[in-house]
């Protein structure tokens, strides 16, 4: 399972989350989770992934499709 920040929330969803944040006095982060399997990669591929992660300042996950 891989989860990422939700990007497909509508105005109504955001309003409900905002109301809950106000009620609870906290900031909420919304995630969507997807069933995925990790890809099998070799050391060369892993090195390429690490280099791009460092360059972009992000984390990448190799998955099977």
Please provide a written account of the structure:
This protein has helices at residues 11-24, 43-56; strands at 2-5, 31-34. It is an alpha+beta fold and 65 residues long. The chain has 2 domains: 1-34, no CATH class; 37-65, no CATH class. The protein has a two-stranded antiparallel sheet. The protein is elongated, with a radius of gyration of 17 Å. The two termini are 13 Å apart. The model has no long low-confidence stretch (mean pLDDT 96).
Condensed summary:
Helices cover 43% and strands 12% of the residues.
Shape: elongated
**What would the average pLDDT be, to the nearest integer?**
96
Strand order of the largest sheet: 1-2
Largest sheet: 2 strands, antiparallel
Radius of gyration, whole Å: 17 Å
User: What is the succession of H and E elements?
Assistant: EHEH
Number of DSSP-assigned strands = 2
How helix-rich are the residues, as a percent range?
Answer: 40-55%
Strand content range: 5-15%
Number of helices: 2
What structural class results from the helix and strand content? alpha+beta
Domain tally: 2
Distance separating the two termini: 13 Å
Low-confidence stretches: none
Subunit organisation of the chains:
single chain
Keywords:
single chain, 65 residues, two-stranded antiparallel sheet, 2 helices, elongated
């Amino acid at each position: 399972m891989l989860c990422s920040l939700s990007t497909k929330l509508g105005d109504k969803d955001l309003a409900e989350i905002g109301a809950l944040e106000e009620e609870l006095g906290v900031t909420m982060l919304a995630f969507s989770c997807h069933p995925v399997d990790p890809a099998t990669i070799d050391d060369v591929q892993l090195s390429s992934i690490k280099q791009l992660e460092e360059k972009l300042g992000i984390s990448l996950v190799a998955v099977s499709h």
